[in-house]
Amino acid sequence: MSIISPKDIKKNDFKKNFRGYDPNEVDAFLETVSLRYERLFEENSQLNEKVKSLASDVDVYKENESTLQKAIVKTQDMSEEIISNAKKRAENIIKEAELNSQKVMQEVEKDIMTKKQELEEMKLRNDKLVEDVKLFFLEKLNEMDEFIKNRNIYSMELANITPSNDDEELSKMKKVSISTAKTNFSD
Fold first, then answer.
1. Does residue 20 sit within a domain?
2. What's the whole-number average pLDDT of the chain?
3. Of 157, 147, 156, nearest to 180 (Cα)?
4. H or E element: which one contains 176?
5. Is residue 2, in this structure, part of any structural domain at all?
6. Three-state SS at 186
7. Could you tell me which residues come within 8 angstroms of residue 148 by beta carbon, excluding any fewer than 6 positions away?
8. 3 found inside a domain
9. Which of 86-90, 108-112, 180-184 is predicted with the least confidence, judged by mean pLDDT?
């Protein structure tokens, strides 16, 4: 079946016979059919062009889809690799932090031990100093007691001698007394 163009419809002639159709009506009808067919033919041509264009676009989209699928797969692979590397780095950072914290703890414990030792030494020096001061004071108290025991307590009072003509001699006499620490010394 060949394609009939609108021109073919317009050019087509029918045989005329005596009892046939009115040629003007047939011509008018053919003209109308021809115009409608022409529009349909043009529309069909446009639609065919559009179908070719869309088919071309579909091919491009299919190609893009294939490229995108490949990119997605590659991206997934890369993301898995990045995640794996990030996990490894995180583990390394955690291990390093744990090692650093252990070192810090060891240093702190060492400092604490050093400070404890210094404190013990200071306590011992302080205790020795207190003991030395205590011994010094005890020694001095013992010396003081010895001094008081060995010391003779003198108390002398000079009696009043009957006054004589020598007022000078009388004025030379005075009361003298010497006492211990419990009383005041006086002359």
1. yes
2. 80
3. 147
4. none
5. no
6. strand
7. 180, 181
8. no
9. 180-184
